[in-house]
Design goal:
With 614 residues, the chain is of the alpha+beta class.
Length: 614
């Protein structure tokens, strides 16, 4: 077994790896950028090395600095976690060439499975079923359009180097293809440095099934069963579970056999995931599941597999990288119970799930669940990285027990002042189709507003918070109990003026002077009305503000142009995702402060639209 390990990552996955390494007696070395100078993973590691400025491209993505940090700290091995350099074959080879142990697959395996088109061609040769589509080298818009027309709409455009839903677009009609292709290529080039795409036939009732595989240097390959990751928003996983609902023994045998065959086809070593797309219109069937791609790393959702198998997959990685055989044979692995994982993000569902950046003043997660996190109270959620706060993992005797446990934990979550998706997750877990395991990747899109948390708490919660506030010395300006026999006063709810009815007799009994209201994972702050700050500073009707820090990648109008309601004005790229800002009504561009390539801060006025007269 190796004696020392550098983790070339940050956040919750760095903390996760450190936890197992410490149990195995391995000395750990963390790396950090300027933005992570006070990060939790630094305090948990035995040593920490600074590797550069806050932007990932100047720190976590600079392989030379990672290797230099390993050498200077005396680390024997490098674990890349997931994301960043975890699937970079050149970096893996550089690590090995430096005489260090690479905790991951061989560079050749990463290369073979790294591009979706090449991987699919290889899987066809290995006899693994693949979805109908186009994998050709001709990347001209004309050829791609012709192939899409031939496949038949809807089709899916996917970046060949993509992942995490980036560089992916569903196209429902031929007239929309070229615009979708251009947008997909821009996003792929920005995220992966490669704008080549492939085309796939869109599966009408798709389910996302993936199989955890593991190989060692002794020629052994096993699977650790399947996960269902069908609950997705914009192609990004939201809630994952294991095993997959409705998976019978025959179908499980077929899909896991295909996964092992896929891993053997590239002489795979270490942890990997074979992802499949299934047509769930008639339930899960062995002849309706096709290979999509392979992720040559540990997955974000690996804890659900650990929960149902009782195995520590990071320990498996470290043992395999040290040259040991797999800890278990296939016949020694079995499924126990059910597990679900939710990804808790600092993001605002009411603003299109844009990241919520800032200080995490209050951070509590309720329930009896496993919590994998890389932050703590007082930490900052940075604009430079993925805004994940934690992964919440529940394990129960059956699916319903796991679902209830996860929903309870998320309902009891208290996070302030950042906005989170906790309330959205609670509603997703409680949706009738999810409860009944009627799953497909379009469930969230169809449910729409039914999954959106309310914009204000219930009257009872408001009343309790009001009763707490008026019973304290910091009560509302000008408020007197004997002046309001009806028990009604003005407050600010998350900065917005509201009037709240309450029982004055209960004011001194209230137990929460902070005015924090929490309902089903959503948090609001009720504060006293103070005239000087009540109104706030709004930009007014027709003002188009940047929803978050980002970069302007397209400006579709000029000053003086006439525009119609819903017309695209400016496109902002933030967190490697594109966000189009549109005209709120018919009018004229009265002011334009956006320029292509420019950086903007949250709340910056980009465009001012003057309403048409009449």
């Amino acid at each position: 077994m190796m004696r020392s390990l550098l983790i070339a990552n940050r956040g919750e996955i760095a903390c996760r790896i450190i936890r197992t390494a410490r149990r195995l007696g391995i000395r750990t070395v963390a790396v950090y950028s300027d933005a992570d100078a006070d990060a939790l993973h630094l305090r948990q590691a035995d040593e920490a090395v600074h590797i550069g400025p806050s932007p990932a491209r100047e720190s976590y993505l600079v392989g030379e600095r990672i290797i230099a940090a390993a050498r200077s700290s005396g680390a024997e091995a490098i674990h890349p976690g997931y994301g960043f350099l975890s699937e970079n074959a050149e970096f893996a080879k550089a690590v090995q060439d430096a005489g260090l142990i690479w905790v991951g697959p061989n560079p050749a395996s990463i290369t073979a499975m790294g591009l979706k088109d090449a991987a699919k061609a290889l899987m066809k040769q290995a006899g693994v079923p693949t979805t109908p589509g186009y994998l050709g080298e001709d990347q001209s818009a004309e050829r791609l359009k012709a192939e899409a027309d031939a496949i038949g709409y809807p089709v899916l455009i996917k970046a060949v180097a993509g992942g995490g839903g980036k560089g992916m677009r569903k196209v429902d009609a031929g007239a929309d293809f070229l615009d979708a292709l251009a947008s997909c290529r821009r996003e792929a080039a920005s995220s992966f440095g490669n704008d080549n795409v492939l085309l796939e036939k869109w599966i009408t009732n798709p389910r996302h099934i993936e199989v955890q595989v593991f190989g060692d240097t002794h020629g052994n390959v096993v699977h650790l069963f399947e996960r269902d990751c069908s609950l997705q928003r914009r192609h990004q996983k939201v809630i994952e579970e294991a095993p997959a609902p409705g998976m019978d023994a025959e179908t499980r045998a077929a899909v896991t056999r295909a996964a092992v065959d896929a891993a053997k086809a590239v002489d795979y070593v270490g942890a990997g995931t074979i992802e499949f797309i299934a047509d769930g219109s008639e339930g899960l069937r062995a002849d309706r599941i096709w290979f999509m791609e392979m992720n040559t790393r540990l997955q974000v959702e690996h804890p659900v597999t650990e929960a149902i198998t009782g195995q520590d997959l990071v320990e498996w990685q470290l043992r395999v990288a040290s040259g040991e055989p797999l800890p278990k044979r296939q016949d020694e692995l079995s499924i126990e119970g059910w597990a679900m994982e939710a990804r808790l993000y600092a993001e605002d569902p009411s603003k299109g799930f844009l990241p919520s950046i800032g200080r995490l003043d209050t951070f509590e997660i309720g329930g009896d669940c496993r919590i994998d996190t890389g932050v703590e109270e007082g930490a900052d959620i940075s604009p430079f990285y993925d805004p994940m706060i934690a992964k919440v993992i529940a394990h129960g005797a059956d699916r319903e027990a796991a679902r209830r446990s996860l929903a309870a934990a998320l309902s009891g979550t208290v996070i302030w002042p950042l906005r989170t998706n906790a309330g959205f997750l609670v509603r997703a877990l409680s949706h009738a189709d999810f409860v009944a395991a009627r799953l497909d990747t379009g469930l969230i899109g169809r449910a729409g507003d039914a999954l959106m948390p309310p914009d204000r708490p219930g009257d009872a919660g408001l009343a309790r918070a009001a009763e707490a506030l008026v019973g304290t010395p910091i009560g509302p300006v000008g408020f007197r109990l004997n002046a309001l026999p009806r028990g009604e006063a003005g407050f600010l709810l998350n900065g917005v003026p509201v009037r709240v009815a309450f029982d004055p007799a209960k004011a001194k009994e209230a137990a929460s002077p902070a005015g924090l209201i929490v309902e089903a994972g959503q948090a609001w702050k009720l504060t006293p009305w103070r005239v000087e700050g009540a109104g706030g500073q709004g930009a007014g009707d027709g003002a188009i503000l940047s929803p978050m820090p980002g970069r302007i990648i397209a400006v579709a109008v000029a000053a003086g142009d006439s525009v119609t309601k819903g017309q695209k004005l400016v496109t902002v790229e933030a967190m490697k995702m594109e966000h189009s800002l549109v005209a709120p009504f018919d009018g004229t561009v009265a002011e334009l402060n956006a320029r292509e390539g420019g950086q903007v801060s949250e709340g910056a006025l980009l465009v001012k639209v003057a309403a048409s007269e009449g």
